[in-house]
Queue: 2 jobs
Job 1
Amino acid sequence: GDSVTQMEGPVTLSEEAFLTINCTYTATGYPSLFWYVQYPGEGLQLLLKATKADDKGSNKGFEATYRKETTSFHLEKGSVQVSDSAVYFCALRTALSYNTDKLIFGTGTRLQVFP
Amino acid sequence: DAGVTQSPTHLIKTRGQQVTLRCSPKSGHDTVSWYQQALGQGPQFIFQYYEEEERQRGNFPDRFSGHQFPNYSSELNVNALLLGDSALYLCASSLGGGSGNTIYFGEGSWLTVV
């Protein structure tokens, strides 16, 4: 079945360091891909998305490119801030039938940024 | 514009009891999905409601049931609670089930079963 695999955390970085969180997926068809972020004690917020191969999603300095050939959607940021500390979830959206769908999530990667 | 709202935010129940969680979708949205997020895990799809019908269900037992009302709000009911049901329950809404429109999540309801 469809699945998402993320690198395990925690990822610990100093402020202004470069961030990469790896995400690969297995899916039939052509899923849409997402990164969601969860700050402590909160729900999920959509960070960015890509709906077809070679699309690049970007938001708040974060970027991810939908790579169909490597089935990957790695999250990157050039310079992280303390406020980026959170758990990041990679997800794919799969159509279950004509009028229904669901998100399949990875297990999440905790990012800790220190001053 | 109110986003997805859920209630209650936190609750504690005893094994064997029943619980009802509530969700109001984002304004204009007609599709509601429920997810269970156990501690340290990613959210798992429970089911999705569209046009007041359960359209699809994840791998959850019949103890988990739901309902969608004509105003698109939704309830998640869990019967005969087990310790393993302790989790964050997330409601998500979108416009048009399966349409590909963006899915928005609420803050969640934290359920602790003791």
Job 2
Amino acid sequence: EAGVVQSPRYKIIEKKQPVAFWCNPISGHNTLYWYLQNLGQGPELLIRYENEEAVDDSQLPKDRFSAERLKGVDSTLKIQPAELGDSAVYLCASSLGILAGTDTQYFGPGTRLTVL
Amino acid sequence: EDQVTQSPEALRLQEGESSSLNCSYTVSGLRGLFWYRQDPGKGPEFLFTLYSAGEEKEKERLKATLTKKESFLHITAPKPEDSATYLCAVRRQNFVFGPGTRLSVLP
């Protein structure tokens, strides 16, 4: 079974440029998460989707970050414009969901963003 | 506010030297405590879920235990391939991760 797929794996941009990350969750997983991970720290939740609905985006900096999950499958996370402090690893995770009796998350490899 | 702390921050062991990692949490209405392993350049890999105090789970050289305020990840006779960062996370409404413990096992 394929795991969570993310692309690109690495991205280097200059500040004020836009950037987008893509995530394809494990087939059948209704819940999708986007996390940000800084070096030496644990992941921090940005947004959680249940199917196509964003049920928790309280930690998403909405002035520059946006996300969407069309048709409840793939998701994209966008930053516009990027700032130096956005340099981090962006992780996507998916789970079957509580209604399926399990909330175990499975993570993708992440996208390492460097803003110059 | 939900908080998760992990200790030690880093741990260096000789191969075969058993030890324990600690995860302390302050959260009301805990809906699960999760342990993950993360290798450099990769996403976290699921290890265990614990739901109630007194619960224990084992996988190869790893054993996770849970009390009302903390969880321990015991590593018995570790091998160099166990070197990684070990993350714990608690779930209430969402997941809150600790900063991790960087484990190095020397041959």
